[in-house]
Every structure is written in C-alpha cells, then in structure tokens.
Specification:
The protein is an alpha+beta fold and about 425 residues long. The chain has one domain: Rhodopsin 7-helix transmembrane proteins (Rhopdopsin 7-helix transmembrane proteins), CATH 1.20.1070. Helices cover about 75% and strands about 5% of the residues. It contains 14 helices and four strands. Strands 2-1-4-3 form a four-stranded antiparallel β-sheet. Strand 3 and strand 4 form a beta hairpin. Helix 2 runs parallel beside helix 6, helix 4 runs parallel beside helix 8 and helix 4 packs antiparallel against helix 9. The radius of gyration is 29 Å and the shape is elongated. This is G-protein coupled receptors family 1 profile domain-containing protein. One of its GO terms (molecular function) is G protein-coupled peptide receptor activity. It is found in: Membrane. InterPro entries: 7TM_GPCR_serpentine_rcpt_Srw, GPCR_Dmsr-1, GPCR_Rhodpsn, GPCR_Rhodpsn_7TM.
C-alpha cells in the first residue's frame, strides 16, 4: 500500500513541485475514493475467501496453489483492514475534532503499518510464485525436488516472518503527534497566524473560534529522523518495490520465452508424428496417437497455468512499478516532490493496489479449468442439490420403513 498516504507532510518551499492540476485531481478523486475502495474491498474480501476455499481442497493441492493460498490470505487481511479505514477517512463525514482524535490516529498508525506489512508479504509471495513457476517450466525434471510441498511451506512461513522485520524502519520512523488548530463553528480549520495572541491552552474560545489539539500520524522528529526517513524511502521504493519488479520482469520474459519454445517444439513434433503416421502401419496410427494426445493435453494445461500466472505477475508489475519509481524520485528530487506529487497520487496508488488484490479470483476463473471445476463442485453443485431437495414434496411412508423425505435426500445425494 501507499505508505505516504496516512501522513501529514510538512510544507516544503523549495525543490521540484507538481502543478495545480494534480492537486485538483487529488481533491476530486478524494470524493470518489471512499466508495470505490469500499466496493473493491467488499468484493475482494468475498473473492479471496472463495480463493482460499477452492485452493485448499485436496484435489487442488500443489506448491503453486499453496503459494496462491498464502497470497490470498495476505490480500484478504489488507481488504478487511482497509474497510474501517475507508469509512473513517472518506465516508463518515464529521468535524475535524472528532476525526483526528488520539484514538483514531492510533488506528491510522496501525493501518499504515499493518497494510504495508501485509502487502510486502504479497510481494514476497508473488516473487516466490514466479520463481517456482519458472522452475516448473524450465526444469520440470527438478521441479518435485526443488519446489516440494515442504520447501514451499517454508518459503511461505519465511515471507510471513521476515516481512514484518523488513518493515521495522517504517514503525520507528512514524508516530502520533499533537497539533494545535483553530476551528470555526463548522469544525473547519482556520489559519493560525490570525490567532497568535491567543493563549497556549488546549481549548480557548475567541469569537466563535475554538483552539483544539488534534492528532496526526507524522514522521518522527529526532536527530536521526532525516537519516531514518531516507532509509525508509529507500527500503520502500528500492527493496520492496523496484527489486521485486525487476526480478519479476526478467522471470516473466523468461517464462514467455519458454512458452514460445514449447509451442515451436510441439509444432515440430506434430509435423513429425504426422509424417510417421503416414509412413507406418495401422498399429502406430491407432495406438500412439492416444499417448501423444495425453502428452499434448498435459503440456497445454501447463501452458494455460503459466499464462494465468503470467497475467497475475503482469498485473502486479502494472501496480507496483509506478510506486517504486515515484518513491525513488522522492529520494532523488527531495521532499517537495514527495509532498506535492507522490502524496497527491496516494489514493490512486491505493485503489490500484486494492484492485490488484481483488482481481485474482476473476483471473483464476477465466484462465484455469481446474479452478472452475473445483469451484463448481464445491459451491454451485451443492446449491443446486439444496434447491432440488427443498423443491421435492414429502412422500408417504413406504413399506421398507423409510420415509419419503429421507428417500428423496438419498437420491439427491447420489446425483
């Protein structure tokens, strides 16, 4: 997620700044983001629950599906936690004194850390997924040894343990700090320079104005704060974003190359087999095509799975690469770019990340026949059976001692 979106940046008079159009877009989209993110999170929560239910079935057990399950769990946690944040920050309109209380600011601080950790886990598992798939396609003879269920479980556990440790600079670089503001009768903030003569008490009234202490999540102020800020941005933009994106780009190119080579190899084998079939007797023409068809079907299924995972990886790159580039530019161009450019795109970055976390269910249904079949058996078939059972009227007692209702349930269960 966008780690800058929850902070209140300090104004920076010098350096590179984006234009007023971006600020206008930020103000417009802020009115839409709450409902958009809420709808995406509700859909994504349901979709990821369905992903977990399907991928954990016994017939779906495989190292790839284990990683996809771990990915669905991390995305589900992001979705569930983002719902109260969207309601608090965007949908539940109330005065600033009620919005920026100490309790709500603690929640926003927890939100910024928790979502970043969960999304970092998703990134780590996505890279693992790409490596595992490349091994399965490029080195199929070593796949069972290198990508066993045990090693896959260890990699998933490693992601869930190491990513919270990797995000430690984020924890120590942010805090909740008080800020005194002058609020009018509607609870809107007023320029403090007009009230310099007022006392330093927490609340003081002056002609309908109120001096109130609000609380915001800000970067820590200490002798090491600037160093910690740079370390934090470097870790976020380079380690968490750009390095995984570069690795995924290289792996995706290699996967596409392997797919094209496999397609050319199948084309040559098909041509060769047709020539052999025409030159040999009926025995070769009748028996061997069955084996060839099974082999071709297995290769096509492998290609479909690889294409589905490539779609997941490319969607990830489309979402994460811009964040890494913007974070790196924030380090190079300074705080002005961070405050006037990156922060203004924070809501857009968030909605793209949420969509990326929610859309995998659609990709699985569209591109995986096994996923569709298992989903249909797990949900659709049961719903049809329940509907058929409820539609059958009660039958009279039969001579064998069983009631008509129990007989009907037995029949339906056997279908």
């Amino acid at each position: 997620m966008n780690f800058s979106q929850n902070f209140t940046p300090a104004p920076e008079p010098t350096g590179y700044e984006c234009g007023a159009r971006l600020e206008s877009f930020y103000n417009w989209y802020a009115q839409v983001h709450g409902w958009a993110s809420l709808l995406v999170c509700i859909f994504g929560s349901i979709a990821n629950v369905l992903n977990i239910a399907v991928l954990t079935r016994r017939e779906m057990q495989s190292p790839t599906n284990m990683i996809l399950t771990g990915l669905a769990v991390a995305d589900l946690l992001v979705m569930i936690e983002y719902i109260p944040y969207a309601i608090h920050m965007y949908l539940y309109r109330r005065p600033r004194r009620d919005t920026f209380t100490y309790g709500w600011s603690i929640f926003v601080l927890f939100h910024s850390n928790f979502t970043q950790v969960c999304h970092t886990i998703s990134i780590c598992l996505t890279v693992t997924l790409a490596v595992w798939r490349y091994i399965a396609v490029a080195y199929p003879q070593r796949n069972r040894e290198w990508c066993s269920n045990k090693r896959t479980s260890l990699m998933i556990a490693f992601a869930y343990v190491s990513c919270p440790i990797l995000c430690i600079p984020l924890y120590i670089n942010t805090e909740v700090r008080p800020q005194v503001e002058i609020l009018d009768e509607r609870g809107m903030s007023v320029n403090l320079t007009k009230f310099q003569q007022m006392t330093n008490s927490t609340v003081a009234s002056f002609e309908g104005m109120t001096k109130t202490t609000l609380y915001f999540v800000k970067l820590t102020e200490s002798p090491m704060s600037n160093v910690l800020k740079d370390i934090n941005v470097w870790i976020y933009s380079v380690v968490i974003k750009l390095i995984p994106c570069v690795a995924l780009t290289g792996l995706s190119i290699k996967l596409v190359k392997v797919l094209l080579e496999a397609k050319q190899r199948r084309k040559k084998l098909t041509t060769k087999n047709i020539a052999i079939k025409m030159g040999n007797g009926k025995e070769h023409a009748c028996e061997k095509p069955k084996k060839r068809r099974k082999g071709n079907d297995k290769e096509r299924q492998t290609d479909r799975t690889t294409m589905m995972l490539l779609a997941v990886l490319l969607l990830f790159l489309f979402t994460e690469m811009p964040q890494g580039i913007l974070g790196l530019l924030s380090v190079i161009l300074g705080p002005s770019f961070f405050n006037t450019c990156y922060v203004m795109l924070g809501d857009v970055i968030d909605i793209l990340t949420l969509i990326n976390s929610a859309i995998n269910f659609i990709l699985y249904c569209a591109m995986s026949r096994q996923f569709r079949t298992t989903f249909n058996q797990l949900f659709c078939k049961r719903w049809r059976l329940i509907g058929r059972w409820m539609a059958v009227p009660h039958q009279p007692m039969e001579n064998n001692g069983h009631t008509g209702t129990n007989h009907t349930v037995t029949q339906v269960t056997q279908v």
